[in-house]
Amino acid sequence: MQKIFGYVRESTMQQAMHGYNIEEQKRVIEDYCRYHFKDYELEIFVERGKSATSMNRPELQNLLDKVKKAKASKVIFHSLDRLTRDIADLYWLINYFDKNQIELVSVMESFDLTSAIGRSHVYNSGVYAQLESERTSERTIRAMKQAVIEKKYPFSHSPLGYDKIDKMLYPSKDENQIKIVKYIFNTFAENRHNYREVVNEVKKRFDYKMDDQAIVKLLRRRLYTGTMEYRGVVVENYCEPLIDQKTFDDANENSKIIKKRYRRTMYLFQNLVVCADCDSRMSHTCGTGRHKKVYEYYRCKVCGHRASQDMILEKKAFQLQGLANEYYRDNSGYKEKRKQIALMRKNQKKLVEKQKGQGIDVETFYELFLNYENEINALSKELDNIERKELYFDSLEKTLQKEIIHKYVKLIRVHFKNQGYKITVELIRK
Ligand SMILES: [Zn+2]
Fold it and tell me: Pick from 23, 48, 58, 193: most CB atoms within 10 A?
């Protein structure tokens, strides 16, 4: 009697969206065995909630371990992407099973793994699975949106003040965390401090390290009022609020005013603002408001129209945040890394073509191919890290804000007559 192992896998996020669920995969494997073999014993390893881009999967490791001891004859899986989506891992797996004289069977794809040509075919498919894995990041975002709608928290690290239990957020058991969150919101709601003071105070009172950016991020997080926002999806009553709406609004309002009070005059949009009514460039000037606060204005000498800098900042906040992100990417080698990856992908494709035309031997092909693959993986990880980081425009130094604006913005048009101060931004095209 021969011993056969099956392997089925689903990742939590993807399973909800598409793909084959565990039971379906099991059924396919069982049917395959019934149809092809007479005397056999089938054991299926069930992997839940794991991604195929990592080898760090308990059931896969279990399978690899048992396969040696049990002298299994075959490992059967539904399709290649259940086993792995990573070409380097695939290469390793095929070698491993080969060494242990175990036949790999994919029910949905008919690969002949006993011949070199058949194997190179698998590797080529592995390439496509890898590309597929990149495309899944879009699907993953969709799945994450779905999770948010279902009031699940799709990120691994829960925000300060909350614990993640059974995929959902609950006020943290660590009361210190909640105290920090409340302290920060209350402090700003009462309009007492500036960022630096709060950073120091949090360190002193709670022995907790935060920087300006972390404080801004926390203050902007609507989650603390119980409402979750994720890429345009807004879900109310998502979790138990730690902060009431009024405190949240006041804190956000004040945290912006505080910045204004401590600043010196700075014309962020110097020489960029144009009066759309008469098409002439507006000059900068300042005026004094209540409590002797100084405000920057842009003034049209022809029509006499005035537009305040704060108004432009407020109306274009979203776009300016976008520029801050772009600036960060421009200055972190993001674009160069993307280009390098594209180039290596291109070389990989050329290599595949060469191999198809029998221009190089299989061994050399694998080695070169894997070299590219490893480099691409390393670069992709760096890109991921860059993508995860964000600069918050409104918490940046004024000089940096100005630098960013002048790097990307060509013109800012302010429409006055009957347009309610509509503002359009023209960017420098590169
Ligand atoms: Zn004008």
Answer: 193
